Amino acid sequence: AGYERLVVDLAGEGSGWETKNPPYFQVGHDSRASNINVSIRGVSQRSVTSSALDRAISRSSLISQAYLAPNFEGDLAALEFKTRAPVDVESFYLVNPPRIVIDVRAKR
Question: How far, CA to CA in Å, does 21 sit from each of 9, 27, 30, 68, 84?
């Protein structure tokens, strides 16, 4: 309790991430607005849907909502998570398989 991990899997058939440099990504956090924003450049295909994202966070004690922005800007993927209470956020990138990891902890 008080800790959750969000993982954005960038692997997929034909993704090519195995031979590329890590994608540009940014994780923003606004504790006052209870938001976590994730932007990822270089995403040519999306296999996740908004309903799958909702199911993934349905049992979360820290995340109340998730929003996947429509694909308007070419290769940019944008996600927003609303938190139930103030949290601390830490993110990092893992190479094999390629994924972005976001650790979310309840503020003490």
Answer: 15, 18, 28, 24, 34
pLDDT of residue 1: 61
pLDDT tens, 75-92? 788 899 999 989 999 999
As a 3-state breakdown, the chain gives helix, strand, coil percent values, each rounded to 5, of 5, 45, 45
List the 99-106 sheet strands across, edge first.
Answer: 3-9, 99-106, 87-94
Cβ neighbors of 72 (< 8 A, separation 6 or more) are none
Residue type, 36: I
**What is the rounded CA–CA span in Å between residue 58 and residue 14?**
30
Chain-centre distance of CA 66, in angstroms? 9
pTM listed for this prediction: 0.83
State yes or no: pLDDT of 20 exceeds 60.
no
Whole-angstrom distance, CA of residue 56 vs CA of residue 28: 20
Rounded Cα gap, residues 61 and 12, in angstroms: 29
Residue with tokens 């991990």: 5
